[in-house]
Amino acid sequence: MEPNLASLAEAIAAAIPERPAIVWRDRRLTYGDLNARTRRLAHHLRSCGLGLRRERAGLAAWESGQDHVALLLYNCPEYLEGMIGAFKARMAPINVNYRYSAAELIGLLSDARARALVYHASFAPTVAEIAASLPDLEFLLQVDDESGEALLPGAVAYEEALAAAPAERPSLSWSADDLYVLYTGGTTGRPKGVLWRQSDIFFAALGGRRPDGTEMESIDEVVDTARRGRLRFMPTGPLMHASHWIAFDALHHGHTVVLPDETRHLDAADVLGAVARHRVHVLVIIGDAFGRPLLAELRRGVHDVSSLRVLGSGGASLDVGLKEELLAALPEGAKILDTMGSSETGTQAARSSRRGATESRTFSPHPGACILSEDHSRRIAPDEAGVGWFAQAGRVPLGYLGDPGKSARTFPEVGGVRYAVPGDRARFDDDGRIEVLGRDSSTINSGGEKIYAEEVEEALKRHPSVYDAIVCGRPSERFGSEVAAVVRLHEGATASVEDLVEECRRHLARYKVPRAIVFRDEIRRSPAGKPDYPWARDQVSAQAGTPDANPGQLPGVDRGPRRR
Fold first, then answer.
1. Spans of all domains in the chain
2. Among 23, 96, 134, 405, which residue's CB has the most CB atoms within a 10 Å radius?
3. C-alpha angle 266/70/258, rounded to 5°?
């Protein structure tokens, strides 16, 4: 089976038209409603002259033959409608980070050559500011929100566009080669669009695999699976990032997607209130940045979360100690499921934890997940020692939009097989599971030893006073680079530098222990929970210290207890 995401949406909606597909605030869209609205959006886009320009055959891996529609939206049903409607118009939707400045938006939309933009009204002033710098951008669809911003000149109101368009299925021949594009800046240095065939991303991340990891074999199997879907999924992260993978996985299994009422930031009380009202079964968060506020709200005990069966986490690390505390606060029998992957690989591995059996750093690999050698010349065997590159074979992207050089480096061919190698370091443990050590870009090379930031962060977070931490390197005359940390303590908690150093010594080799620790009231992370390493380096670079200091001997650091 080589499916297309548009045809999958049509087939599932035909089978379960009355089942709720998306629930948000007082809105409830059935699969039939979602199907009709995405058809109408596709017709509107087609009426603008947008769609397919060239079929995939004959295009280079880094080229797109489709028009692109960008989505500048907070979490809402229109985000998912925008994606599916674009697929049905044979366009490629483009995810846009709503935190970007005007200059950053111009850079991304220019790189994507977006011809249409769907945006929340609250972004209208920014869209007006950047429009003149985007000659390719011709069509604007404005989604109403609570902002009260007037419709921009030349823009069309989203609901009016849908109301004026027919609800019939578009007369187009959808293809498995039609594109799904995901913009990422994590491994490329600046935002770049990862180009996936729709068929490949369906199996890699959007629900195309059975529980045993094998691929579904027919549209009928997908539809039969959807008929049995009865769960309610709640992604809490921004849909502009890979949190929409959770939503599509749910929709492709016939489940219901529930969105928290608050869409612009994480509000743990709002999230758990929605869990209670809608009887959510699967709640998906993004690592410690989401997990810690959620734990504090769970401990208040004011929300009925007895429906929860799974707490999922992906996109950022979830500390093992925090997992144990979350499991203690969740209903009996609930589990935590960590997933590992990237925009360039899809989901690669997972680990499951229950009370009394908490997994730490190792993952069970999904089909195609592997480790390549340092020089990319071969695959490392599971019984072979050593650190290599966490890679993915099989269903992998075509390349980066408009960038043949980065496409070749990130998606190399080894022994006749194409791989995705986004930059994570990994090694096998004795049981053949994969220990993911972290991004090479955040690895600290100190005196010839490679130190992985996430490993040190995990050790710091084991101290009961530590709420959050980011570890990075800073220059050292003696070692080239040395380990430094920015730490946030729990409210009212106390810890000294020596306390934290001693905690690290219990879990790490001496050379991995931080040589500088600074305390901050807040830790800066992205909306997706990822550490802001440039910010952390700025914090530690101003901290006095002696390059030759032994670990734990930190002249110039406030050595007294710190309290929040």
1. 5-214, 361-438, 447-563
2. 96
3. 35
pTM of this structure: 0.85
- Identify the architecture of domain 447-563 in CATH: 2-Layer Sandwich (3.30)
pLDDT of residue 187: 43
DSSP state of 309: -
CATH architecture of 361-438: Roll (2.30)
Per residue in 59-105, pLDDT (tens digit) is: 999 999 999 999 999 999 999 999 999 999 999 999 999 988 899 99
Separation between Cα atoms, residue 354 and residue 66, nearest integer Å: 45
| Average pLDDT along the chain, 564 residues, taken 10 residues at a time | 96 98 97 98 98 95 98 98 98 94 93 98 97 97 95 97 98 97 71 96 97 94 97 96 95 98 93 98 93 95 97 87 93 94 94 83 91 94 92 97 95 95 91 85 77 87 92 84 93 92 90 92 82 88 49 37 43
Q: Which residues pair with 167 in a beta bridge?
A: none
Instruction: Tell me the C-alpha distance between 113 and 117, whole Å.
Output: 11
Give the contacts of 220 (CB within 8 A, at least 6 positions apart). Answer: none
Secondary structure in 3-state letters for 19-62: CEEEEECCEEEEHHHHHHHHHHHHHHHHHCCCCECCCCCCCCCC
Using CA atoms in the order 268, 235, 282, 181, what is the torsion angle rounded to 10 degrees?
A: -160
Closest CA to 379 of 394, 359, 395, 393: 393
Strands 388-393 and 179-184: unpaired
Strand partners, 233: 257, 282
Determine the topology of domain 5-214 in CATH. Answer: Rossmann fold (3.40.50)
